[in-house]
Amino acid sequence: xxxxxxxxxxxxxxxxxxxxxxxxxxxxxxxxxxxxxxxxxxxxxxxxxxxxxxxxxxxxxxxxxxxxxxxxxxxxxxxxxxxxxxxxxxxxxxxxxxxxxxxxxxxxxxxxxxxxxxxxxxxxxxxxxxxxxxxxxxxxxxxxxxxxxxxxxxxxxxxxxxxxxxxxxxxxxxxxxxxxxxxxxxxxxxxxxxxxxxxxxxxxxxxxxxxxxxxxxxxxxxxxxxxxxxxxxxxxxxxxxxxxxxxxxxxxxxxxx
Length: 257
Known about the structure:
The protein has helices spanning 2-19, 22-42, 57-75, 78-86, 89-94, 102-128, 136-165, 168-184, 197-203, 207-219, 225-256. By secondary structure, it is mainly α. The protein is built from eleven helices and no strands. The two termini are 27 Å apart.
């Protein structure tokens, strides 16, 4: 009960900090819609390529924008931890009786809420510009679960990295180095059969693509539940591994202090 109470408190603290940045909140909600418009218009003609497998590019793109928004936001999560480090806030929490796991879990809960809100806005906006969804309730649920599994894994790694390197420049460099290649080496913007052969091989091991296979598949007219649950399983294992890595980094920071 103490851990739950502490997590609730830390969630409230992270949520209030989130709301105190109105410009950040506005851009967080508006940017995915800009991506949807830009990428939707830029790649709209690819549906005419034989073998693409989709007749409506907006329908194909919307799950990708949901996933992209979620894991990009999570990838920069370490910056908030770094801010607490530089201001000495985290050290003050560590000498208090607060449950240690709540320091990370509180931020992850706010991250989940942010992703859910973003996803709803993107899905509604996508429908307004021509996207269509099948199996709406279960499809959206699977998409959100898959996106949050990926975002939690990426967020945990970002927090762990911040605790290890403790440098803003290192987090920025690592995020740019990892996030963009993961997005573009997935089926986010292009069908798998139209990608270069070497990229197709990498895509099989790309967690972003696991998320897209699960989320996009659940929203399709004829979902293949076998691959959907298989990829959700991969994401769950990845999340556990990343959480373990983040926990080790947190303990390493505690020992150093």
